[in-house]
Write a structure and sequence with these properties.
Blueprint lengths: L2 E3 L2 H5 L4 E2 L1 H9 L7 E5 L4 E10 L4 E10 L7 E7 L5 H12 L3 E5 L10 H22 L6 E4 L3 H8 L4 E5 L8 H5 L6 E6 L7 H9 L3 E3 L11 H12 L4
Parallel strand pairs: 1-3, 6-7, 6-10, 7-8, 9-10, 9-11
Antiparallel strand pairs: 2-5, 3-4, 4-5
Helix pairs in contact: 3-4, 3-8
């Protein structure tokens, strides 16, 4: 069933109207009176609505009861990714949203080849957030993950350590596995940190240990920077009973 993310005022109305991009999207889909759609507030709540009328620019609805989305995971997972080259971040944002991430956090690290310029970062951020919204709509999410941009490695560590379980992945760690880290205790929130194409410097890993993060391996194979966070996120969701 088609879902639309709308602002809070529209969501709470008993007779909401889809306008703007949502109105155009509804027209493209050729939705007709009597059909049903789902409205989402982007924060985990949704409501089933019936179409009253539809035109080329807007669609009037009759809204049902508000309830919590059943598609949102019980565990809050934040994906932290050092800026990668090309469009790899876009790929991670899209797939992490589909897999249930609560937020995707990008940050610079010492070996980042890609460092977005300040003047272009605003437009890129808007595009990345639109990718998250589109992926949330397509995958039936009740929440749009926030794409967060941080200015430094230290800022990423300070934020990531606030989760119940903060994990950093390092290719030179061989003793502690992700499975062991996830089975070490209970948690409601998880931060997953991974590096760029060139990996993380040893001093950055030690900074993470000092901040209280758990450093672990993702196995004996070296994963690409866009593969590692998605692999880890899938493992966390499986461990949490989401699959």
């Amino acid at each position: 069933m088609t879902r639309f993310f709308v602002d809070r005022e529209v969501f709470l109305s008993d007779t909401p109207v889809l306008t703007g991009e949502n109105g155009k999207h509804a027209a493209v889909l050729r939705l007709k009176a009597g059909e049903q759609v789902i409205l989402c507030d982007g924060a985990g709540s949704e409501r089933l609505c019936r179409i009253l009328s539809s035109s080329s620019s807007e669609t009037a609805l009759e809204a049902g009861e508000i309830h919590a989305s059943i598609a949102e995971p019980r565990v809050k997972v934040s994906v932290y990714m050092a800026y990668p080259k090309a469009d790899k971040l876009e790929h991670v944002i899209q797939k992490a949203t589909e897999l249930g991430a609560a937020e995707i956090v990008a940050f610079p690290s010492a070996r980042c080849v890609s460092r977005p310029e300040e003047k272009s970062l605003g437009k890129k951020h808007e595009r990345w957030q639109r990718i998250a919204q589109s992926a949330a709509e397509q995958s039936g999410r009740g929440r749009i993950p926030e794409v967060i941009l941080l200015g430094s490695w230290r800022e990423a560590l300070n934020r990531a350590k606030e989760a119940d379980l903060g994990i950093l992945f390092y290719e030179n760690e061989h003793a502690l596995t992700l499975s062991q880290a996830l089975n070490a205790g209970t948690y409601r929130s998880v931060s997953l940190l991974s590096g760029p194409e060139g990996g993380l410097e040893e001093r950055e890993v030690e900074d993470a240990r000092s901040a209280g993060l758990t450093v672990c391996t993702l196995g004996s194979r070296i994963l690409r920077c866009e593969t590692a966070p998605l692999c880890a996120l899938s493992a966390v969701m499986y461990a949490a009973g989401e699959f």
